[in-house]
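Data availability (excerpt). The following record was deposited with the supplementary files.
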Amino acid sequence: MIESISTLQVIEVWLAVGFTLMMYSFLYKDNPLFKLGEYIYVGLSAGYGLCYAWYVVVWPDLVLPLKRVIGCTLGQPLPVDKPLESYETFWLIIPLVLGIFMLTRFSAKIGWLSRYSFAFIIGASSGMIIPNAISANIFKQIVPTLQPLWGKDITILQTADTVIILIGVLSVLIYFFFSVEHKGVIKGIARVGIFYMMVAFGAAFGYTVMARESLAIGRLTKLVNWADKEYLYASIILFFVVAGIIILWELLRHKEHRIP
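Predicted structure:
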């Protein structure tokens, strides 16, 4: 038994189809419908990000813990089953002040205070990201080159895989070794490194293209499904509406250019 579609679901589908066609209208050229959809998308994203940051980060991790600390200091009893946690201290005032300093960016007079917040964020982020990046991009890349080439449980394919990886790593490193002129044997090894890099770049580019095509196919499949009578022919009607608006915009634009 097919479930009936509610009015709210139909409205959601019409909005989704409308904004999708508005964004795809850029395939023709830049137009007011695309700009309207772009502005609405950016505005909704900013609003969602602000609400998410407040209700998921600021409120539970800063406001409520600081409120409990202040209440406990003023003598308000805390629930027996919910004592203060280790992070619920007056040290929370530091991130609060840094967050307020970031908002001073909108003021020309005291905007310099935001530099302290950004400096702290960049420094702390670098301290956390750099070790992880080194571990993931250097140490983890070295491990495959250190695998044994033969052994009791090592197959021929595993040995070939290790040799291919070892040749690729060494040839790419030699390609970027500019202290020695690339000629003779060094030039040949560097060319092998170029081949490895082209394969890697091609695979990365192909993966990116396939991911984008997958998104496009998924969205086009939705548009086809939403063209059904169940959704009041949303895709068909809105396609002609968007196309009509663009044609009207083009006619008015050309008419303005013709006026001396």
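Summary of structural features: The chain has a mean pLDDT of 90.
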